[in-house]
Amino acid sequence: MKQKKIPLRSCVVTRERLPKQELLRVVRTKEGEVKIDDSGKMNGRGAYIKKDLAVLEKAKKTHALARCLEVEIPESVYEEIENMIKKETE
Q1: Which domains does the chain have, with CATH numbers?
Q2: Where are the alpha helices (DSSP H) in the chain?
Q3: Which pLDDT belongs to residue 1?
Q4: CA-to-CA distance for 49 and 60, rounded, in angstroms?
Q5: pLDDT along the chain (90 residues), means of 10
Q6: Structural contact between residues 56 and 78, judged by C-beta atoms closer than 8 angstroms
C-alpha cells in the first residue's frame, strides 16, 4: 500500500522543514489584520512558526514574522501564539 505524503512547511525563524501539524500558521489578511490560522486554510499571506516558546521569543527579537508578512505584528498576537503553544504542550 502506498504511504500518504506528509506536507512539509518551513519555519520562518529556524528555517527547519517540519510536518504541518508541528507548526502554527499566522496569516495577514487582505485588510492587513494578523490572525492565527487554526485550520490552515485561511485566505491571505501565511507564515509558519514552530510550536516552541524559545522560537517565539526569537521571532519577537528578530521580527521574523513581521518581515515575512510585511506588516507590524501587535503584541496581542504574540500573546495569543504563546497561549496556544502552552495549551498544546500541556
Answers
A1: 8-89 (3.30.1230.10)
A2: 53-62, 64-69, 75-89
A3: 78
A4: 11
A5: 88 95 94 91 94 95 94 94 88
A6: yes
